[in-house]
Amino acid sequence: MSFLLNHLPVLPILIPMLAGALMLLLKEKRRTINTLLSFGSFAAQALVAFILIKSQVATSAEDATQPIYVYILGNWNAPFGIVLVVDRLTAIMLSMTACVALAAFLYSLAFWRRVGVHFYPLLQFIFMGINGAFLTGDLFNLFVFFEIFLSASYGLLLHGSGILRVNSSMHYITVNLVGASLLLIGISMIYAITGTLNLADLSLQAGNLQASDRHLFDTACSILGVAFLIKAAAWPLNFWLPSAYTAASAPVACVFALMTKVGIYALLRVGSLLVPTGAPAAFGGEWMYFIGLTTILFATFAMLNQKNVASLGAYAVIFSSGTLLTALGMPGVSLTGPSLFYMVNSVFATAAFFLLIELIKRIESFERSVLNVSLEAFGLDQQEDSDYSSTVVGVKIPAAMAFLGISFLACAMIISGVPPLAGFIGKFAILLQAMNMAEGTGPSWRAWLLIITLLIAGLASIIAFSRTGVRLFWVPDNLNKPVLTFREAGAIIFLLGLTVVMTVMADPVMTFMDHTASSLNDPSQYVEAVLGSNALEGK
After folding, report:
1. Which of 55, 244, 446, 528 has the fewest CB atoms within 10 Å, i.e. is most exposed?
2. pLDDT category, 497, cuts 50, 70, 90?
3. What is the rounded distance in angstroms from the CA atom of residue 183 to the CA atom of residue 172?
4. For residue 526, which of 59, 283, 198 has the smallest C-alpha distance?
């Protein structure tokens, strides 16, 4: 048992990697075995994430000093070897990822796993890359894991075929390849200047640079920041997102709702280590603040202009990224804790909304539905009637229309920040801290501008969701009676239930987020843990 505990940090990468590789060997004909392997993999990842975050919560209740687990791969000590690092921020991101993975897997059991080939292996590889990006302690492997989950996302975006998905994937792939090129250029320049890519060592080397190297280092950091902003869907680098997220199948869009937060994490992680050394505003400050405000305004106007419910969800993802960038661009860490609370809640809510969108489309005529297009593409439309009863696998749920309406209302309230759910708590905490900052000696005009923007944008999102809800559920008089299963409904209930848990336990969760923010404000803990001698050796 102790052997397993000592190797926990590597398991979120190792488990999906082995599961995905084994599924490729078994091929698509072994669907039952592949399904069991997927369930085992995601359950194991969730268990590992639960153990890791529980250890962080236990110490957080006592003081602000966090336990940091450092896993050395190949027994080469940092900064020369590859290290995996688990602190409070990493534990939060791994736990959030595990929950989204379970929901996407549960939903896919009903139908989507049969619409194309290699769905489960690609799903494993995308979470391998995401988990690795959260765990890695050096820039080069951050690039490697970015490429792993992006490569898997290319295949998942095309899963289900269709002209719309092919066209959207071209923009998606092109922009992300440009982002990857910028990321590699920035990393190469940083290595040429500092001689290291280990994040902990980099924070030490950057503070001791000669004046002649400082400008080049700042340029490299700016290039790196732009690459992360592309991943985070910041304006004007987010034009690729709405079409891609709208075209993706429901469980894939659910996963995509999480992916923009990998860019946010990278900005926060790298920025927390480099900003104290004088790194440019690419990782914080006024530049990120104004980029975030512009992203909020762009998403707000786009949501008001949308009639497509899927596009509404895509712009909700952009809106959440803008809110996070704006809050994290404020000085200090007073907004970081509320921002982390808001981030986790927004990921759960938007992921649930993307799953709900496909179910809502079933109330339309069958000939116009997205699912019918996929059925025709894969020759699965040989059914006697035009409903989903012979397609969707699982037990049908009663009162399907009531479930859709209530779930849509819940998602709209959470995303818009309507009380009393967790979406309101997260936004209210951000606004409260901003008001405290405005009344103090800080940059009051920036704080008030954030408050006004969030209030107006929140009102606009309420209008957008209300108008869409009326159009979908109230006005039409020829709606089809949809066929939903407990597997599909269960995934949505699971994600929305997590937001309810965050609402009920808002005080301890917010306290843990604040402790996480305080830890990020003291990068010496991270540096000492990685470069010290108390790391776990990977054997």
Report:
1. 528
2. very high
3. 16
4. 198
Tell whether omega for the bond before 276 is within 30 degrees of 0, i.e. cis: no
Look up tokens 């391998």; give the residue. 128
536-538 and 82-86 as β-strands: parallel, antiparallel, unpaired?
Answer: unpaired
Question: What is the crossing angle of helices 422-439 and 444-469, to 10°?
Answer: 160
Question: In this predicted structure, which of 366-370, 480-484, 507-511 has the lowest mean pLDDT?
Answer: 366-370
Pairing of strands 82-86, 69-73: antiparallel
Closest CA to 232 of 277, 288, 281, 278: 288
CA distance 152 to 74: 26
Ramachandran angles phi, psi of 70, nearest 5°: -115, 120
* CB 501 within 8 Å of CB 359: no
What is the DSSP annotation of 309-370?
HHHHHHHHHHHHHHHHHHHHTSSSSTTHHHHHHHHHHHHHHHHHHHHHHHHHGGGS-GGG-H
Q: How many CB atoms lie within 10 A of CB 382?
A: 7
> Which residues are paired to 497 by β-bridges?
none
DSSP-assigned beta bridge partners for residue 136: 84
Lowest-pLDDT range of 23-32, 62-71, 148-157, 386-395: 386-395
Length of the chain: 539
Q: What are phi and psi of 230, to 5 degrees?
A: -60, -45
The neighbouring-strand residues paired with 82 are 73
DSSP conformation letters of 378-396: TT----SSSSSTTTS-SPB
Task: Report residue 112's pLDDT band, with 50, 70 and 90 as the boundaries.
Answer: low
- The sign of the dihedral angle between the CA atoms of 290, 253, 154, 157 is negative
Residue 81: exposure state from Cβ atoms within 10 A (0-12, 13-18, ≥19): middle
Strand order in the sheet with 536-538: 82-86, 69-73, 536-538
User: 357, 342, 361, 356: which is closest to 311 by C-alpha?
Assistant: 357
Q: Give the pTM.
A: 0.86
Q: Which long-range contacts (CB under 8 A, 24 or more apart) does 298-305 make?
A: 298/235, 298/236, 298/238, 298/322, 299/457, 300/456, 300/457, 300/460, 300/461, 301/460, 302/242, 303/460, 303/461, 303/464, 304/460, 304/463, 304/464
C-alpha–C-alpha distance, residues 208 and 348, integer Å: 42
Buried b (16+ CB within 10 A) or exposed e, 408-446: bebbbbbbbbbeebbbbbbbbbbbebbeebbeeebbeeb
Question: How distant, in Å, are the alpha carbons of 17, 34, 313, 387, 469 from that of 247?
Answer: 27, 26, 12, 22, 21
**What is the spatial distance between Cα 71 and Cα 529, in angstroms, rounded to a whole number?**
10
Q: What's the rounded mean pLDDT across residues 20-42?
A: 84
Mean pLDDT of 22-38: 82
